[in-house]
Write a structure and sequence with these properties.
24 helices, about 45% helix, alpha/beta
Length: about 625
């Protein structure tokens, strides 16, 4: 969700029991939003200057403390309300899924006549009003070291991710840390310093750890690494590699359906894999890991590209997952996310061709982008004025040391000028006519700053003329207007008319197409004689083909209402042909046919998925 879009989402929806995640990348943005809400609610605000040695951690702690206090106040206010149509108490229960025991109790309450039984049930329902989890997110690899003004490196605990971890961990908020983008051993080692993530006196940890993972192997590797530190995984959160917002990771051609299948078949192994390591850690610390915590079923969830109630039922009922995550569609729900009106309307108007996987991120990772965003327009204007690049006001993505001993950002004026000089350009050429090497310099955008501008504009803390970067997932192309929270929730739970067209492709079909798109780009870049690159492409293609074989059987299953299975069947033929054509055009066919191993998964027994509508 970028750095700004969910910056205040807990204050908007946690009182309705809805969980949300706040990015911890931009502590300057966090400080400004903290000040904004402290003023609105009459709270004391003590600015934490950049000169403070631990400014980043302290800002994060202070903001989450404020969020915790305000949400607690919201929950208390809801509990004090009567059960009346149209107020937040009724809304809390009305938004719940039909499967919720609390929802069932609420409907029972409404049907009861006035009297002692109704009063008793009202008291019980009041106790069930709980806030949604207030979580923080760290991209683990985004762990830039900090330097003193004279260039001297600061101690490791002041690095970007460790300071963010410290800030969230020391806050009073009860929630989870969501860690994404792979393993960071030094950060994982730092976790041992924070008791909130461990059991105390046999009680569950105060804060949980959620790992975003790309596949089953990733969950095993990271889970074991953390188990050796005594950390229990609160949840494994599978994310589609490419059918998601923000930075995208192609997962070596593994498709989402086979990934979910492997979790279905193998999730029962987690206790035997992790618990002996956790138990050994506790024993080494002179403590006992409680027997009651053994054989714990770790929740598995999925996010990225889900767009209909039928697709949600598929992953919950067929693959046995515990929950689903929805992000990009909520960029079109003003009640939930912080984004300026102009950008929100651009997203509502956007279609498939307006959303693309760009090279805009200075991290060098593919980045989902919106064509003609004001950030893109601003970057182009800088080039046209002969001053390409950003002044780099925040520096969170400073990682390049090609020209300087202290890292700088590849989207900055500093880097672009040096790079263009090194390439022999005294004056930067116009972007439209620049050669490929120059384009690769110009394409970088100041996302660490401009991803937060939409939130500040919407909150009235920034002029609307400032550039806004936005990173929606491709799924947003099928949502075409702004929605209320109730409309979006009812769409998710299948309680109202669908908000997407009936011909919207199945999210497995979209995931397949995006994965083949990515393979095509890599194949086009392949240079003859690059044996390592060819081996990568061979494995990538083999994994796609294995996934296609899996889907050939999958599409014969009965579909859930609103699940466009025919679109997946058509995609299998279309993408198989594309794969063959691109290999014939760009790659040595004989070499590409040398597939090591054969990735095969059987379908879940059809009786568990045989739910025709």
């Amino acid at each position: 969700m970028g750095t700004g879009f969910s910056i205040d989402t807990p204050l908007r929806v946690a009182r309705f029991g809805i969980a949300s995640v706040v990015s911890l990348v931009d502590d300057i943005l966090i400080e400004r939003v903290h000040k904004h809400y402290a003023k609105i609610h009459g709270r004391d605000f003590q600015a934490i200057p950049q000169s403070d040695p631990d400014a980043r951690a302290k800002r994060i702690t202070a903001y989450f403390d404020l969020i915790a206090d305000l949400v607690d106040g919201q929950i208390a206010a809801i509990k004090a309300l009567p059960f009346e149509a149209g107020n937040d108490k009724s809304k809390y229960f009305e938004l719940l899924p039909e499967s919720s025991p609390a929802k069932h109790g609420y409907l029972t309450y409404l049907a009861l006549p006035a009297g002692s039984e109704k009063d008793r049930l009202a008291r019980e329902l009041n106790q069930q009003i709980l806030p949604g989890s207030i979580d923080g997110n760290i991209m683990t690899k985004l762990d830039r070291p900090e330097f003193e003004k004279d260039g001297t490196p600061r101690p490791a605990e002041f690095s970007q991710s460790k300071a963010a971890w410290r800030g969230y961990s020391l806050s009073k908020v009860r929630g989870n840390m969501v860690m994404s983008a792979g393993i960071n051993p030094t950060l994982y080692g730092y976790l041992e310093s924070f008791p909130d993530f461990y059991r105390q006196a046999g009680m569950p940890p105060v804060k949980g750890l959620i790992l975003k993972v790309s596949d089953y192997r990733s969950s095993l590797v990271q889970g074991r690494f953390l188990a050796k530190k005594g950390i229990e995984i609160k949840e494994f959160r599978i994310e589609s590699g490419l059918n998601c917002g923000g930075h995208a990771f192609a997962s070596d051609g593994y498709l989402l359906g086979p990934i979910l299948q492997e979790f279905l078949e193998s999730r029962g192994k987690f206790p035997e894999m992790f618990e002996p390591l956790i138990t050994a850690y506790y024993r080494k610390q002179g403590r006992e890991y409680p027997q009651s915590a053994m054989n714990r079923d770790i929740p598995i969830t999925v996010q990225g590209g889900l767009g209909t109630h039928g697709e949600m039922r598929r992953v919950l009922e067929y693959y046995g997952l515990d929950a689903t995550g929805w992000a990009s569609p909520f960029l079109l729900v003003p009640e939930v996310t912080a984004l300026d009106q102009a950008t929100r309307q651009r997203l509502a108007d956007a279609r498939e061709g307006d959303l693309y996987l760009s090279e805009a991120s200075p991290l060098g990772v593919p980045f989902n982008n919106l064509r003609e965003s004001t950030s893109e327009q601003w970057s182009r204007k800088q080039i046209e004025n002969g001053k390409p690049g950003s002044p780099c006001p925040k520096g969170y993505l400073e990682a390049n040391t090609e020209f300087t001993p202290v890292p700088i950002c590849t989207a900055s004026k500093n880097f672009m000028k040096r790079k263009l000089d090194a390439m022999g350009y005294e004056v930067a050429p116009d972007q439209a006519h620049a050669d490929e090497k120059v384009q690769s310099v110009y394409v970088k955008q100041c996302i660490c700053d401009q991803l937060g501008n939409g939130a500040l504009i919407q909150l009235g803390e920034m002029k609307a003329s400032q550039p806004v970067s936005v990173c929606p997932g491709p799924n947003i192309a099928y949502f075409d207007r702004l929605y209320t929270l109730r409309e979006m929730v009812d769409h998710i739970y299948g309680r109202g008319p669908s908000l997407v067209p009936a011909n919207r492709p199945h999210f497995f079909a979209k995931d397949l197409k995006l994965t083949v798109d990515y393979f095509v780009k890599q194949a086009e870049k392949h240079q003859p004689g690059d044996a390592k690159g060819l081996a990568y492409l061979r494995v990538f293609k083999g994994n796609i083909e294995a996934g296609i074989r899996y889907y050939r059987e999958f599409v014969t299953l009965p579909q859930f209402l609103g699940e466009n299975m025919p679109s997946l069947a058509a995609a299998l033929d279309e993408q198989s042909m594309r794969l063959a054509e691109i290999v014939h055009q760009y790659l040595p066919i004989e070499e590409m046919q040398k597939i090591d191993g054969d990735f095969q998964l059987s379908l879940r027994p059809s009786s568990l998925g045989n739910r025709p509508e």
